[in-house]
Write a sequence for this structure.
């Protein structure tokens, strides 16, 4: 390969990388990062880097390429080592490039490159596995896979609940590996992992798992770090609404602190509490009916629920209430069935209001 051809291939890659970022073309960016695909274009780029050995200067002196130098310079070095089969050095250089990519990702205004971040997480794991095999064959202690695990933990620092399917993909990558010892990771990484996966469990309404993970994060986070401090008074009315079955109080609390809840990423999770508040309200109606006439306690008229909601300044008709009850029954928050002709909910005589996945709400 001539020097001129090598130069052309290197600048072509750099132009494609720069264009992919500027146009937010994640499909192209993913291809440029997929080492393990052994694509002919990446292998030829590695050969070009061996012929034209001044790529670092080319990157740093160009206005188009220099903004991404922290990513591309170690990426090129990693590719060269990968091509020659020096997998330990290939891993070390790729890890440096991956950490630089995360820093850039945090500065971008949107999460357009999340799929590229997932590719990087996959590639770093593949390189770590191959590097460890190389270390073991040379009689050295395999250690790169644990380092890759720490990088995977960092990924959770940039994931948002708006990309749930991508969160699940990364979680599966970690939890199915079975070769990471969770307790060996730094405490900050463990807290971050438990916090974000705990929030995801709440979003999926898996409350026991959420309680376990979020409790771990709370107990182990640094109490002196200002970023970890939450204004708990904002949640006071949320808790009271849940205890009382007061839908009006819940909605007022969400409206009052909407900006803070949105910034901290918990608004959608708190909004999901509305069904539990409905359940609590219906349970209170049931208790009152049982005190008045035990023989009819399990027959709850829909118009009684309508009146209770109107007292709470929630203006709903019978059809809307029927839809809400149907959802509660489907979610196993209420046990019973409809007697449509008489507009009555017939409640189960045994445990008509099941506990929230084993987590009762205090009276």
């Amino acid at each position: 390969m001539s020097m001129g051809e090598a130069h052309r291939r290197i600048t072509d890659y750099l132009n494609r990388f720069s264009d992919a970022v500027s146009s937010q073309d994640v499909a192209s960016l993913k291809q440029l990062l997929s080492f393990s695909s052994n694509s002919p274009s990446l292998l030829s780029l590695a050969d070009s880097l061996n012929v034209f050995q001044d790529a670092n200067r080319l990157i740093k002196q160009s206005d188009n390429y220099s903004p991404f130098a922290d990513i591309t310079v170690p990426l090129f070095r990693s590719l060269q080592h990968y091509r020659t089969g020096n997998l330990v050095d290939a891993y070390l250089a790729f890890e440096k490039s991956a950490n630089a990519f995360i820093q850039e990702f945090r500065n971008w205004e949107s999460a357009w490159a999340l799929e590229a971040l997932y590719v990087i997480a996959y590639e770093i794991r593949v390189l770590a596995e191959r590097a460890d095999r190389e270390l073991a064959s040379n009689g050295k202690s395999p250690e790169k896979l644990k380092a890759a695990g720490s990088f995977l933990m960092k990924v959770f620092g940039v994931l948002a609940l708006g990309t749930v399917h991508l969160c699940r993909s990364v979680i599966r990558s970690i939890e199915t590996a079975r070769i990471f010892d969770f307790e060996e990771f730094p405490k900050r990484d463990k807290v971050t992992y438990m916090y974000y996966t705990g929030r995801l469990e709440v979003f999926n309404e898996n409350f026991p798992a959420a309680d376990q993970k979020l409790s771990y994060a709370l107990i182990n986070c640094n109490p002196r770090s200002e970023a970890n401090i939450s204004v708990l008074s904002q949640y006071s009315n949320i808790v009271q609404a849940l205890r009382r079955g007061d839908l009006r109080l819940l909605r007022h609390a969400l409206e009052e602190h909407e900006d803070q809840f949105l910034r901290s990423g918990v608004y959608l999770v708190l909004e999901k509490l509305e069904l539990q508040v409905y359940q609590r309200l219906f349970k209170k109606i049931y208790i009152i009916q049982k005190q008045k006439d035990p023989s009819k306690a399990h027959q709850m008229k829909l118009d009684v629920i309508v009146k209770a909601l109107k007292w709470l300044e929630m203006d709903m008709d019978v059809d809307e209430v029927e839809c809400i009850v149907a959802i509660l029954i489907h979610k196993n928050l209420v046990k019973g069935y409809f007697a449509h002709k008489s507009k009555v909910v017939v409640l189960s005589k045994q445990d008509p209001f099941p506990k929230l996945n084993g987590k009762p709400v205090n009276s």
Q: What stands out?
A: The chain is about 65% helix and 5% strand. Residues 114-137 form the longest helix (24 residues).
